[in-house]
Amino acid sequence: MAKVLVVTSGKGGVGKxxxxxxxxxxxxxxxxxxxxxxxxxxxxxxxxxxxAERRVVFDLINVVQGVAKLPQALIRDKRLENLWxxxxxxxxxxxxxxxxxxxxxxxxxxxxxDWIICDSPAGIERGATLAMRFADEAIIxxxxxVSSVRDSDRIIGMLDSKTVRAERGERVxxxxxxxxxxxxxxxxxxxxxIEDVLDILATPLLGIIPESQDVLRASNVxxxxxxxxxASTPARAYIDATRRLLGETVAMTxxxxxxxLMNRLLGRRAA
Amino acid sequence: xxxxxxxxxxxxxxxxxxxxxxxxxPAVPIVEWLEEIDATxxxxxGFFVGKPVVLDLSAVDLSRPAIxxxxxxxxxxxxxxLGIEGVEAARLTASMPPLLTGGRHCAIQHVxxxxxxxxxxxxxxxxxxxxxxxxxxVFPDGDVTVLGSVGSGAEIVAGGSIHIYGTLRGRxxxxxxxxxxxxxxxxxxxxxxxxxxxxxxxxxxxxxxxRNRPAQAWLEGEIMRITxxx
Lengths: 271, 230
Known about the structure:
The complex is a heterodimer of chains A (about 270) and B (about 230). Chain A is built from 14 helices and 8 strands. The longest helix of chain A is centred in the N-terminal third of the chain and has 14 residues, at about 15-30. In chain A, helix 1 (about 15-30) crosses helix 13 (about 235-245). With about 270 residues, chain A is α/β, with parallel strands linked by helices. Chain A has helices at about 15-30, 45-50, 60-65, 70-75, 100-110, 125-135, 145-160, 165, 185, 195-200, 215-220, 225-230, 235-245, 260-265; strands at about 5-10, 35-40, 75, 85, 115-120, 135-140, 175-180, 205-210. Chain B is an alpha/beta fold. In chain B, about 10% of the residues lie in helices and about 30% in strands. Chain B has helices spanning about 30-45, 65-75; strands at about 20-25, 55, 80-85, 125, 135-140, 145, 155-160, 160-170, 170-175, 185-190, 195, 200, 215-220, 225-230. The chains are: A alpha/beta (about 270), B alpha/beta (about 230). The interface between A and B is medium-sized, with 13 and 16 residues.
C-alpha cells in the first residue's frame, strides 16, 4: 500500500526539506520505492538538497497544468535507483497549484511508489494546505523552541481538520520529529526540553536530530545527510527515525555530539 | 428547389388550467383603498410579484375613466391586473384587462411548515482531543470540557464554565453571555488570558506561584479570583 507522507511544520527554517531528503533517502536505502515531491512552488530547494538541480526539465506545475506528463517530470536519483524527485517550479507561485491537479498526481504516484513524501512549504496557506491535503501520515518537524512548537501545534490542528482523511472521519497518523536539538543548550535551559515539546504537542515522537555541521555540509554538496555521511550523528538519528516510520521498535536516544577536548573544557563557560 | 411547398399545418392544442388569483375588491373612497395597498406593499414589497390579480368591481360603481385610472394606478405599483369582474362589459375598453366571469371562491391556504418537536440544545460540550493553537471553540450555550490541553494561541469561549483536564496555555473566556457565576478550572495553568463575564486577566497579571498548578478562577463582584485547586 502506497503511503502519502507530508513533512510539515508551519514555521520556516526548521529543517523540513533536509528531513524530507534524509528520510526519503533512508527509506530508499531500506528498499522502499520513494518519490519526494517539492510543494514549495516559487522557493524550491529540495532539488538542491537532493543534488538534482541541473537535471530539472519539467516540474510539478507543468504536470498540474497538463503541459507535461508525470514521468517526464520525475527525476531519478543518481545514487539510489529507487529514489525519485518531483521538483517544484521556481518561476511560478503557489496559486498555480490546484487541489484537483494535486489529487490526480498523488493518485497516479500511488500506483507505482511505496512512499510519496510531500515536502511542505512554510506557512498555513495554499501550498502547505495542499501538501497535507492527501496525506496518510505526517511528520511535524519542530525545533525545541516556543515559536516553532506553537506553529507545530497549529499545523497539527490543521492536519486533524483540513485533510481528506480528517474530512472522511479518519485519522492522519502524526509523528513529531525534533530537529536542531542541542544537548548542551538544552541542559543549560536555553531550549525547551524534549518532555516539554511532547507535552505541548501531545503527539508521538519519531526521532531527535541533533544540531550538526554534518547537515549543512551535506546540503551544500547536494546530498541527503543519510547518504553523504551515514555514520554521522544526524544521519544515524534520521535512519533510526526512518526505521520507526517503517514500524520497527528502535530505542529512543537523545543524541550527543562528540565534543572535542577544548569544547568540553570551554563549552560550559558561563556568559 | 420547390419554392411553393405547402406549409405544414400545425395543430393548435388547447389545454385547460386553473390558477388561484388574488381578488381585489376596491372600496370607496378609492384613494384610501390605494393607500391600504401601499401600506401592504411597504410591509412586504414583493407580495404581489408574479401573482395573478383580478379586480372585483361589484362593490363599487365606477365609470369607464375611473376604472382606467384604477388599473393604471395599480400598474404604477407594479401590480398587473389579469382581468376584471363584477362590471358590465360596456364600461371596459379594449385596452383594459378582459372581463372575467365564472370565478369560484377558494380559500387561500397558508401553508404553515410543520414545526418539528424542538429538543432543547445540549448545554455542555465535551472535547476529547487537545485544542490546538489557532483553533477557536465557541459554545455560548453552556459549559465546555476539554480532556486534553489547550494550546498557546487557542481559545475557548463558553457561555458557562470551562473545565480543562490538561494544561491551559491559551485563552479561556467563560460566562460570555453575562453569566458572572461561571468559573474556569484547569489541571495546569499557563493561560495567556482568563476572562469571566467580560472581566479579564492576562498572563502577566497571573500570580507566578500559581503557574503549573491546578487552579480555578471565578468572579467576586468585579474582581477575578484565581486560586489553586488543592
